[in-house]
Amino acid sequence: MSDKTAITPATHTQPPAKFSHGVRKGNILQVAGQVGFLPAVPGRTPAPAGPGLREQTLQTLANVRSVLEEGGAGWEDVMMIRVYLTDTAHFAEMNEIYNEYFADLKGAPAARTTVYVGLPAGLLIEIDALAVLD
Amino acid sequence: MSDKTAITPATHTQPPAKFSHGVRKGNILQVAGQVGFLPAVPGRTPAPAGPGLREQTLQTLANVRSVLEEGGAGWEDVMMIRVYLTDTAHFAEMNEIYNEYFADLKGAPAARTTVYVGLPAGLLIEIDALAVLD
Amino acid sequence: MSDKTAITPATHTQPPAKFSHGVRKGNILQVAGQVGFLPAVPGRTPAPAGPGLREQTLQTLANVRSVLEEGGAGWEDVMMIRVYLTDTAHFAEMNEIYNEYFADLKGAPAARTTVYVGLPAGLLIEIDALAVLD
Predict the structure, then answer these.
(1) Can you tell me where the transmembrane regions are (chains A, B, C) (predicted)?
(2) What is the residue-wise DSSP string for A57-68?
(3) How far is C4 from chain A (nearest CA, A)?
(4) Which terminus of chain A has fewer Cβ atoms in its 10 Å neighbourhood, N or C?
(5) CB contact under 8 A, A126 and B111
(6) Residue B113 contacts by C-beta under 8 Å, 6 or more apart in sequence?
(7) DSSP string covering B67-125, please?
(8) pTM
(9) pLDDT at B1 (0 to 100)
(10) Are A23 and B80 a contacting pair at CB < 8 A?
(11) Is the confidence at residue C105, as pLDDT, over 70?
(12) B63 in the Ramachandran plot: left (φ > 0), alpha (ψ -120 to 50) or beta?
């Protein structure tokens, strides 16, 4: 018997294809790649929180957290965070924002891999996460 | 005692290096990055199913499925699908094909991350998957 | 109660942001993206093992292994290895080095995905790994 469940926070738009924003099965929770889209507004095209790295990074992290929390997890449970940036010049600033965001994190920070890829026009960052719950 | 086993579907060529097309240990099954190569023909260089996104995407998904099934799993068990495309202009068409392919999927669709990377010449898509079995 | 622990080999520099070089929770161990930096020297900026693919690949693999071992695991436990290269022309040489490195590996080799991305200037390869312990 499978207990695999889709996780769809109320703030999130319907995914643009047949995938879930997050999935949990047993104590494993996988968050799909999140970008800096603002909370969904019915009838409107998803829009990023802004053109800059700071607002997109903070919104992306908020979107990952929404999925974690909807699935019964939190940052403390996250094992791996994958950060996709479009520009190596953004590394230092992203790290600053990342460190501010996680300043109060309790327990061991997640592992992380950061690579530089292409993303849809206007998007500067995408993040996904793997969590293992207690 | 480890029960980690390599998964090598009969349709697949020997990997070009010391890695496995899939690995299962306990209830975790990881599928290596698959591309749109047609089933292996002894003595012939692996060839993609065609030059276009549609045939490569369908063949890639078929190759992922072969590994899942050889390992005793199916799409229903997949938690995460990573899609690597070479061109952001392919996103909409890939989603169409993806949705057709998964139209009959039962249960929660897997989470997914799509990023745009470089791939060997002629290849337009690569996909890997993480499954958690019951 | 969480048993999630950070893994920081003595050879490794402090990560440049609030993440861990590795994390273990229960039988899951995630190694963060490693690059070809030589063992840390206090007060010095991290430096790659050399400008070439061979020395960077071997050092990167050594760095992944350090994290695995510090976390109580080894290559035999690794399910998935993600290889990020900057140049498709490096695929064949990387595979040669990879095969030499894993020549004595016992048990099923890990699954692997190789994609071509951007990395910080001077770095040719990055590798992360997911292990499932017995």
Answers:
(1) none
(2) HHHHHHHHHHHH
(3) 7
(4) N
(5) no
(6) A32, A33, A82, A84, A126, A128, B80, B82, B83
(7) HHHHTT--GGGEEEEEEEES-GGGHHHHHHHHHHHTTT--SPPPEEEEEE-B-STT--E
(8) 0.97
(9) 46
(10) yes
(11) yes
(12) alpha
> Would you say the C-alpha torsion B130, C110, A81, A51 has a positive or negative sign?
negative
User: Between chains, do A111 and C26 touch, taking CB under 8 Å as contact?
Assistant: no
What local confidence, expressed as pLDDT, does residue C40 receive? 87
Answer whether A118 sits within 8 Å of B77, measured CB to CB. no
Under DSSP, is residue B58 helix (H, G, I), strand (E, B) or coil?
Answer: helix
**Which residue from B58, B118, B30, B9 is spatially nearest to C79, judged by alpha carbons?**
B30
Structure ipTM: 0.97
Q: Which of B26-30, C10-14, C91-95 has the lowest mean pLDDT?
A: C10-14
Determine the Cα angle at A125 with ends A119 and A128, to 5°: 100
List chains adjacent to chain B, taking adjacency as at least 3 C-beta pairs closer than 8 Å.
A, C
Q: Report the alpha-carbon distance of residue B99 to residue B96 in Å, rounded.
A: 5
DSSP structure class, residue C94 = H
Report the gap between the CA of B38 and the closest CA in chain A (Å). Answer: 25
Mean pLDDT across chain B, nearest whole number? Answer: 95
- 3-state SS assignment for residue A77: helix
| Closest residue on chain B to C91 (Cα) | B120
Angle in degrees, CA B37, B43, B47, rounded to 5: 20
Question: Which residue, among B28, B79, B91, B116, would best test binding to A if mutated, counting the most A CBs under 10 Å from its CB?
Answer: B79
Please tell me the distance in Å from A74's CA to the nearest CA on chain C.
Answer: 12
Question: What distance in Å separates the CA atoms of residue A63 and residue A84, rounded to the nearest whole number?
Answer: 15
Per residue in C24-62, pLDDT tens?
Answer: 999 999 999 999 999 988 888 889 999 999 999 999 999
Chain A residues at the C interface, defined by Cβ less than 8 Å, are: 76-77, 79-81, 88, 91, 95, 98-99, 102-103, 105, 107-117, 130, 132, 134
